[in-house]
Amino acid sequence: MTGGTGLTRAEIRALTEARLTFGARGRALDTGGALGFALDHARARAAVLAELDIAALTAGLERAGLAHHVVTSLAATRETFVRRPDLGRRLPEDAAAALPRTGEIHVALVLGDGLSATAVQLNGVAFIAALAGRLQAEGLRTGAVILARQARVALGDDIARAMGAGTVVIALGERPGLSAADSLGVYVTHRPAPQTPDSARNCISNIREAGTGVAEAADQTLALIRAMRRLGQSGVALSQSLSAGALPRT
Asked: How far from 52 is each of 13, 101, 172, 230, CA to CA, in Å?
């Protein structure tokens, strides 16, 4: 048993993915702990440096019946993306001009690599397909799904403005921690403008098998979009406008 909790070590570990230590602490981790740390660090590093498998993603979108278009931010390479976050937030002018426009678009859907291509490969297409179906049922047009390489969150703003969309949803890999390298994050922004602050966005985090499920995340995103369109706000302003900060249920 462990000090006063009434739970065994195995039972405590089953409650959380956080890094835990037990027993007397010396100057170094035990061998198992050190090896586990090294493995998690390697997974996190690999997730950050990995490139999107565009062929696999486009095949998944095609199976879901979703048109798609591929862009790359001003950070043309992964090395530049890591070293220059500012370039990952901007879309080249020629790429913006080439974006497909098919009539009025209410919500732009963007799937980017972010800081974990691993997360995108695992759950990106499933989330986008689930959300697209819900938006279609609401009568909201999305246009082609934009696959974005070397993408930071704000890249979605440039894409939405170029497509004439009033709201943008960008799903991308979150910064890996040392307990999870496969977490997908979704950022929703209403009426994006140049230099939109992060306070004007709403985020749904930790979308993965051991966190928020794809269907639940799609439901939450749809509820956010409904509220944004009704109140004309997003981010902190939206939270303040909603009664007690509560998100309307779908």
From this structure: 32, 24, 11, 35
In a domain, 11, yes or no: no
pLDDT tens for each residue of 166-183: 999 999 999 876 567 789
- Assign residue 87 the CATH number of its domain: 3.40.50.11240
- 13-54 pLDDT, tens digit each: 777 776 666 665 566 666 677 677 677 767 767 666 678 999
Q: Quote the CA–CA distance of 38 and 116 in Å, as a whole number.
A: 18
Q: Let me know if residue 35 belongs to a domain.
A: no
CA 40/CA 51 separation, integer angstroms: 19
- For 199, the domain range is 53-245
Question: Whole-angstrom Cα distance, residue 217 to residue 167?
Answer: 17
Contact 91, 170 (CB under 8 A): no
- Please count the structural domains in the chain: 1
Residue from 137, 151, 127, 101 nearest 212 by CA: 127
Least Cα distance to 95 among 151, 54, 57 occurs for: 151
The two tokens of residue 185 are: 């994050």
The reported pTM is: 0.82
Treating both helix axes as pointing N-terminal to C-terminal, what angle do 214-231 and 117-137 enclose, rounded to 10 degrees? 60
